[in-house]
Structure formats: structure tokens, C-alpha cells
């Protein structure tokens, strides 16, 4: 029986292959390892370094996004004319990643069609380096530099022969293809307009020097989507570190909704390898579909919010955008001035269209010192002019502490219109000291504590998508069996009136000491 350290096991995934750089503790079941995990001898890599790298450039047609019918061949100028290359239009280079099958994955045609859908005159060129990409992951990873050089020479040639303006050149690379795009950009004589990295590959690129991976130096604007960066389980296919001018981490950059990786990992030991392969592909490739979504649903774009960490974003602390202008995820993203390695976050739906609506709730809990910290289960319901969403779980991160403003993030898939009413419900989900919990929550909400002072009077809300701010006041409070419910409506009193006592400073300025 052979035992291989998990660090050097390569996990072969149907449809797309990924390296499993795992820190899962212990050994995987033997049968699983023998069937699916292919041990690699390191000396092999160095012997097998391929040197016949060869990239082909297929100019696809809007009517046949799936077919390679016309190749542009560097050095053969007539191929530009033969393929009806439009040298005043935008040019896209779509660059695939590692492959097991040696075939294009189905997203390539979808991307081509979506690009033509948005830019009908454009030249959408698929860079075909399938031959090289088919090798062992680590060999393929090493070859990204050579492929990139070749693409860089192609760019120089196009600039020289077709006079294409490089600011209209946009490279879109997925996984290893993102690093190919980076090398292409750094090898081209003049700087290209934009590179979009779609979940750039992590293994062999995480932590290396900027010259050895995609970096902000490779184009005037480098934007990156991270959908499968290292999760809590130590499995990282996409690169985790920010490597562009702007790096967006949808859903924290791991565990994309609808992919069920967590479930697959839990079942891994008995049956889950196929489910897991699908989940991994789903997470990694989500970056591609988010970008395609941004092309197809440009009129209702997903917004992304600058934030220091995923944790802070999850607590709703980052929904305010500079000058109320939020960044748009995907194709319509604009370069942020002087930005470099700016991290942005957003939540998404499980399928296209991915956009959601983000709400920040700021609640100030006042209370007496004898009250202890509590950790309740709180459900929120939102009612708007055009619909409602009920029973959203309000993630209480840690404990609720008296005399502190707590910030929460709520997300709705539907557009409920203008928000009219908000309900909060606390339930006895645990067996823990229910009576003292309820006593305390009740006192917060209706002021029936011994000191009889209203404890939550208002909730301040900011909507990420519209940047609207509003204040909601307690309307009534209801106790039913094991749940307590408080209803809040838009305050009648004006915002200014309530902040008069602070001499013109808004409530926000005075009540938000910890989240500013
Ligand atoms: C080339 O692209 C430009 C837009 O950049 C467009 O106005 C023009 O009609 C295109 N030419 C042809 C022949 O399609
Ligand atoms: C919260 O503030 C109020 C009023 O300032 C004070 O009476 C109360 O003791 C404080 N509670 C805690 C737990 O510090
Ligand atoms: C209200 O919702 C309906 C269906 O849910 C939708 O068709 C309509 O466009 C919405 N109106 C507004 C103003 O959002
Ligand atoms: C509360 O539930 C936990 C398990 O969820 C149990 O171990 C504990 O004994 C329970 N405590 C009481 C007071 O029932
Ligand atoms: C309260 O509990 C009783 C029985 O436990 C149940 O019949 C009743 O429907 C509950 N009321 C509400 C409002 O949930």
C-alpha cells in the first residue's frame, strides 16, 4: 500500500482539472485515493517540460460562437482580412485554463456570444493553447509564461500590422489563462488596455513575485474576480491574494451559493468525489458566469463594495460607496483612480442573474450594566412597495453587547421596491436560559425593564444598490409563545429633528463610534 502526502496529490476533476493543495487532516480512504488521486513524482516534471508551446488565434463569428472557422496567423497579414478583422473595433482575447479533455469547455462559446451581444462590431479571438494546457497541472502552469510570451508577440504584431489601438484590447483569462494574460501583457511592447482575471489559478502562483503571475503592472486596468480562493478547509484552486488594481471576492471568494461544496466535502469520505468535482468546478467557474452575467444583464448590474475584509462585509459595515457611486462588478467595472489591490465584496444569487440587494441595518442596543451579553437568533422580514421578503436570518457575529451599535447585513434576491416596514423576531432556538434572554430582549424593545427606558427606538438602514439611507422607528411590540416580534416603520419625525440635540451633526455621526 502506497501512501502519498496529500500536498503532492493532484485531483483530477471532470471537465476541468484542479490541483488539490490540501491540508485536510489525515488520510483519505485508500480506494478513493487510488481511484481519483494521481500521485506525481516531482522529478517527472522537470524531464517533461514541454517546449513545443503553440498558441492559435481563432477569430470567432457572432453567428457561430462555438466554431473555429478562421484563424489569424501572426506573420500572415492576409489572415486579418480573410477573417474580416475590424481594426477600429474593440478586440477581446479569451484565454482558457487547464484542461483534462483537451477540448474547450462550454463556457467559452457562452463568453464569445455574450461579448458579441454587447459589442457587436468587436473582434472576439479565442486563444487556443489546449495542447499545452492539457499537460500535468504543474507543467501547464510553468508553460503559462511561454504561452503568454507568444500571445504578447501576437499583440505586438496586431498593433504593428493592423494598427489596433491597445486601449481597445481586453484580455479575459480564466484560471491559468489569467496568468497567460498577465504574461502576455508584460511581454507586449506597449501596455494593453485591460486584463480581466477570472479566478486566476492559485497553486504555483500564490505568494510569488509580481513578475511571475498576473499583476497590476500587466495592463492599464487589471480587474480580478475570485470565486474559489482558499476556504476554511484549506482547499484552494483560485489565488487568494489580491493581484489586480481591483479584486472582487463575490460571497467572500469561497463557497458560492448553489455549488454545495460544503455538502460535498462533508460527504467526501463515503461517496462524494464526483459531487466534489462538480462542486469545485462550479465554484471555480462561477467567476466566468458572473462575468458573462455582467455582459448579458448590464442594465441591472451587480454592485461591489470596497471593504477591508470579508468579515466586515458580512457584518454590513461596507455598503457605503464613495460619492454614492458604487463599483459595478464585471464588464462595466471602471478603473478606480490610483487603486491597486483594492478588495471589494458582494453577495450573489445562486444562478443568473446573480444580482442581489444589500441592506445594512445599524441597531444601537442600550441597556443597564447588570445585563449580560446575549447571543440570540434574530429573524428579519422586510416589506416594500413591491413585495416582501420574510425570515432572513440576521447573522449576529459574536454577542450583542449593550450600549453599542451593531451592524448587520441583509440580502434579498427580489427587488421589493421602497422599504416601508421591517420586523424583527427573536426565537427561542436554543435551550439556553430562555427566560433571561427574553426578559432582556423585551426590555430592549419596549422598555418594560425595571428601569423602564425604551431600549431600541430606531434602526438605521442603508441600501447598497441605491445608497438610500433611512431611519425606522419602533411601531409596536408583540410577544407570542416563544417568540418576540418588533415592528418598525419609517420614522415620522424628520432626520434633522432627532439630531438637533447634537447641533447639526447627524445621528450617524454620533451613534456610530465603532464602525466608522
Ligand atoms: C468596425 O467597427 C466600427 C466600430 O468601432 C464600426 O463603426 C464599423 O461599422 C465596423 N466596420 C465593419 C465593416 O463592420
Ligand atoms: C449604558 O449607558 C447608560 C446611559 O449612559 C448607562 O446608564 C448604562 O449603565 C450603560 N450600560 C452599560 C452596560 O454600560
Ligand atoms: C414589481 O414586481 C413585479 C413582479 O414581482 C415586477 O414585474 C415589477 O417590475 C416590479 N415593479 C417595480 C417598480 O419594481
Ligand atoms: C441544552 O442542549 C444541549 C445539547 O444541545 C445539551 O447538551 C444540554 O444538556 C441542554 N441543556 C439543558 C439545560 O437542557
Ligand atoms: C402558541 O402555542 C400553542 C400551543 O403550544 C399553539 O396552539 C398556538 O398556535 C401558538 N400560538 C402562536 C401565535 O404561535
UniProtKB/TrEMBL annotation:
Protein name listed in UniProt: triacylglycerol lipase
Domain PLAT stretches: 357-492
GO molecular function terms noted in the UniProt entry: apolipoprotein binding; heparin binding; lipoprotein lipase activity; metal ion binding
Residues annotated as the enzyme's active site: 175 (nucleophile), 199 (charge relay system), 284 (charge relay system)
Homology family: Belongs to the AB hydrolase superfamily. Lipase family.
Keywords: Calcium, Disulfide bond, Glycoprotein, Heparin-binding, Hydrolase, Lipid degradation, Lipid metabolism, Lipoprotein, Metal-binding, Secreted, Signal
Domain of life of the organism encoding this protein: Eukaryota
Broad class of where this protein is predominantly found: secreted
A GO-annotated cellular component: extracellular space
Keyword presence, Metal-binding: yes
Organism: Astyanax mexicanus (Blind cave fish)
Pfam families associated with the record: Lipase, PLAT
Amino acid at each position: 500500500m502506497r501512501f502519498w502526502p496529500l500536498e503532492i496529490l493532484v485531483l483530477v476533476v471532470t471537465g476541468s482539472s484542479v490541483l488539490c493543495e490540501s491540508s485536510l487532516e489525515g488520510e483519505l480512504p485508500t480506494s478513493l485515493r487510488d481511484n481519483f488521486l494521481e500521485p506525481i513524482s516531482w522529478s517527472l516534471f522537470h524531464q517533461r517540460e514541454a517546449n513545443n508551446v503553440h498558441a492559435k488565434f481563432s477569430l470567432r463569428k457572432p453567428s457561430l460562437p462555438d466554431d473555429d472557422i478562421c484563424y489569424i496567423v501572426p506573420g500572415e497579414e492576409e489572415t486579418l482580412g480573410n477573417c474580416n478583422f475590424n481594426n477600429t473595433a474593440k478586440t477581446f482575447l479569451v484565454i482558457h485554463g487547464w484542461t483534462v479533455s483537451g477540448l474547450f469547455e462550454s463556457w467559452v462559446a457562452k463568453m464569445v456570444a455574450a461579448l458579441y451581444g454587447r459589442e457587436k462590431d468587436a473582434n472576439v479571438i479565442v486563444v487556443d493553447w489546449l495542447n499545452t494546457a492539457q499537460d500535468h497541472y504543474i507543467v501547464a502552469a510553468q508553460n503559462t509564461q511561454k504561452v503568454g510570451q507568444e500571445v504578447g508577440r501576437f499583440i505586438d504584431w496586431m498593433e504593428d500590422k493592423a494598427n489596433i489601438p491597445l486601449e481597445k484590447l481586453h484580455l479575459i483569462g480564466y484560471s491559468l489563462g489569467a496568468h497567460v494574460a498577465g504574461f502576455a501583457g508584460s511581454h507586449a511592447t506597449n501596455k494593453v488596455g485591460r486584463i480581466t482575471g477570472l479566478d486566476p489559478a492559485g497553486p504555483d502562483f500564490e505568494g510569488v513575485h509580481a513578475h511571475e503571475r498576473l499583476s497590476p503592472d500587466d495592463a492599464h486596468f487589471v480587474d480580478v474576480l475570485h470565486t474559489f480562493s482558499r476556504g476554511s478547509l484549506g482547499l484552494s484552486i483560485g489565488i487568494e491574494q489580491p493581484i489586480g488594481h481591483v479584486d472582487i471576492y463575490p460571497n467572500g471568494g469561497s463557497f458560492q451559493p448553489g455549488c454545495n461544496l460544503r455538502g460535498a466535502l462533508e460527504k467526501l469520505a463515503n461517496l462524494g468525489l464526483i459531487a466534489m468535482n462538480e462542486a469545485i468546478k462550479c465554484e471555480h467557474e462561477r467567476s466566468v458566469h458572473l462575468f458573462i452575467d455582467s455582459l448579458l444583464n448590464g442594465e441591472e448590474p451587480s454592485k461591489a463594495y470596497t471593504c477591508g475584509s470579508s468579515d466586515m462585509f458580512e457584518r454590513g459595515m461596507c455598503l457605503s460607496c464613495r460619492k454614492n457611486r458604487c463599483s459595478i462588478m464585471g464588464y462595466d467595472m471602471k478603473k478606480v483612480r490610483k487603486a491597486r489591490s483594492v478588495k471589494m465584496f458582494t453577495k450573489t444569487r445562486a444562478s443568473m442573474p446573480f444580482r442581489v440587494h444589500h441592506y445594512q441595518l445599524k441597531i444601537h442596543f442600550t441597556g443597564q450594566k447588570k445585563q449580560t451579553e446575549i447571543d440570540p437568533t434574530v429573524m428579519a422580514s422586510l416589506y416594500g412597495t413591491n413585495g416582501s421578503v420574510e425570515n432572513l436570518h440576521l447573522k449576529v457575529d459574536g454577542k450583542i453587547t449593550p450600549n453599542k451599535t451593531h451592524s448587520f447585513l441583509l440580502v434579498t434576491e427580489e427587488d421589493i421596491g421602497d422599504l416601508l416596514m421591517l420586523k424583527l423576531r427573536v426565537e427561542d432556538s436554543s435551550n439556553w436560559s430562555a427566560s433571561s434572554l427574553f426578559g432582556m430582549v423585551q426590555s430592549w424593545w419596549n422598555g418594560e425593564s425595571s428601569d423602564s427606558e425604551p431600549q431600541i427606538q430606531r434602526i438605521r438602514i442603508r441600501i447598497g444598490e441605491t445608497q438610500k439611507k433611512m431611519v425606522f422607528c419602533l411601531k409596536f411590540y408583540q410577544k407570542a409563545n416563544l417568540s418576540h416580534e418588533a415592528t418598525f416603520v419609517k420614522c415620522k419625525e424628520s432626520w434633522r429633528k432627532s439630531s438637533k440635540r447634537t447641533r447639526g451633526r447627524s445621528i450617524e455621526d454620533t451613534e456610530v463610534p465603532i464602525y466608522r
